[in-house]
Every structure is written in C-alpha cells, then in structure tokens.
Amino acid sequence: MDWRRKDLLGIKDLTADEIRMVLDTAVPMKDILTRTIKKVPTLRGKTVINLFYEPSTRTRTSFELAGKYMSADTINISTSTSSVVKGESLLDTVRTLQAMGSDVVVIRHSAAGAPHFLARHLRAAVINAGDGANEHPTQALLDMFTIREEKGRLEGLTVTIVGDIAHSRVARSNLYGLTKMGAKVRLCGPPTLLPPALETCGAEVYTDLDRALEGADVVMVLRLQLERQQKGLFPGVREYARYWGINRERLKKAAPGVLVMHPGPMNRGVEIADDVADAPNSLVERQVTNGVAVRMALLYLLAGGGGGVEAAH
Ligand code: CP
Questions:
Q1: Mutation pick for ligand 1 pocket among 52, 57, 225 (CB with most ligand atoms within 8 Å)
Q2: Which residue in 88, 184, 277, 289 could disulfide with 83, CB within 3.0 to 4.6 Å?
Q3: Distance (Å) from CA 7 to ligand 1 centroid
Q4: Nearest residue CA, atom 6 of ligand 1?
Q5: Sign for the pseudo-dihedral over CA of 271, 274, 279, 282
Q6: What are the φ and ψ backbone dihedral angles of 78, each rounded to 5 degrees?
Q7: Strand partners, 76
Q8: Which pLDDT score, from 0 to 100, does residue 231 have?
Q9: Cross-strand bridge partners of residue 205
C-alpha cells in the first residue's frame, strides 16, 4: 500500500490500513532512536515549520526532534514573537512561511478546523498538532503505537478513557482510531463533561468510574482542562479527584496487567495519583519516546517521497 495523502488532519478521515501503515512505519523509526548517532539523511533538503498558537512541550519538541533526526531543517515559530501579534492572519502567516520554501507545516491552534483551512490553501503538507477540542491525531497514533508495542495488538482490547471527554481532542482522536482498529472504547467522566451522542461514535459511556474500569486492559487518563472550561461544570477539583481520579485502589477493578496512559501534562493528585503515574505499568514516558518515532514516520510519509521504509535507514 502507498501513502497518498498530502496532509494529516484527523484520525476520523483515516482508514484502518492507513493507521496500520503509520504504526508499521514508526517501528524502524524507533530503532533509529536507540542508536548512538540518531541521524538519517531521509529528509535532507526538506523544511518543517512548527507553528504553535497554543502552548506545547511534548508535541512541538518531538516534531522538532523528529525532523532533526531525519536531517530536515526544522523551524519553530512562536506566535508571541511573530507578526501574529501585529494582527497578521493565520493564512497570511502560513503563506509567508510557504513562500520561504516550507515543505511541512505542523500547526496547533485553538480553533477547530484551522489545519483543514490551511490544507486547502497550501501546497505544503499540513499536520494537525491539535485543533481546539476537535482532534489530536498524532497523539492518538502514538498512543495506539504504544498499546500495540506493549500488548502486541489493538483488536479485542478494552480501553477506558477517563476524564474531561467534552474538551478532549485526545479522547476524540483515540475513539476514532481505536474503534477502527477493533478495540472496545469506554468513555467515562462527570455527566457535565460528557458530550451527547457519544454512543453513535461507537463508544460505551459511563459516569461510574468503577464500572468503567471493570476488566479494562488499558486506562487512558485525561488532563482536566481547567483553562478550557466555563465555571460550574463540576463542584471542584477535590470532588473531581474523589469520583473520577485514578488511584491504585480503583485500578484493582481493571484487568490484570492493565496499562496506564496519560497524554500529559499531568495534574498529579487530580486526575491521576502519584503512585499510579510512577508505577511500572505506567506508560507515560514511553508515550513521549514513541511520539518522536510516530512523528518521524509521519514526516517520512508526508515529505519523504515513498521508496519504502528501508529508504529511511
Ligand atoms: N500531549 C500533548 O499534546 O502535550 P503537549 O501539550 O505538551 O504538546
């Protein structure tokens, strides 16, 4: 199968075969990360621009490293020190960057659909690094890669996603991806943080965390997005931790060998207890490492010009 897409805008658009292709391509990319000299010439002469209108540690840094490990020129644009503060529009900003010869634009924006808008206007490949509460496709791909690496499969697993589902682009992208790959997805959170009609997307919906955890193979804990919510959606952080926080006692309801994941950044003591975040079955740091491999795979597929995965070595 060949990769035919110009852009990576969301998991909703991808087929199971395309998801599998990204995950399979990330396997040899991860091998590169274990080498003493983490550098291959695959993207020499290509330029990757990271344009983040919202804060990021993991996604922006991993795209930068992914590009550098593949010999691309990577440039980070900080909107606070760019002409965005002088009122330049998103489209004019990106057209300016394209005129300088960028091949890939990685964008994070608070507006859902901003990457899709750019993709319609640019020759460069556009990668969605998170658009509002819509999607965070590269996070879901690295999460699926991490689960598959640890469990050997995605099909047939029960994955419980807990937290602020309404505001979570991570939950949405994982729901689309995991169900396409044959996993069963349970979504759990306070009723005020669960959007309506989730069942129509293939999820089982719970407000009782203990029931949602019963027999789960993977528990994906979401960050409580205090900066996105209007006041009054739940009584307070302490109540949230009591009813929907993941702690060691609660995890006993899950299947033996349950894996715990969190996209980060974590609010320790709120959605996840310290002893769960730091336990041997916590994959939080592995998710970060795998994020570099998966983003290398995506840059390769979108800008590398085919030639098989072997060409990346
Ligand atoms: N998981 C994630 O998107 O983290 P950052 O906000 O640090 O990029």
A1: 57
A2: 88
A3: 20
A4: 56
A5: positive
A6: -95, 120
A7: 50
A8: 63
A9: 187
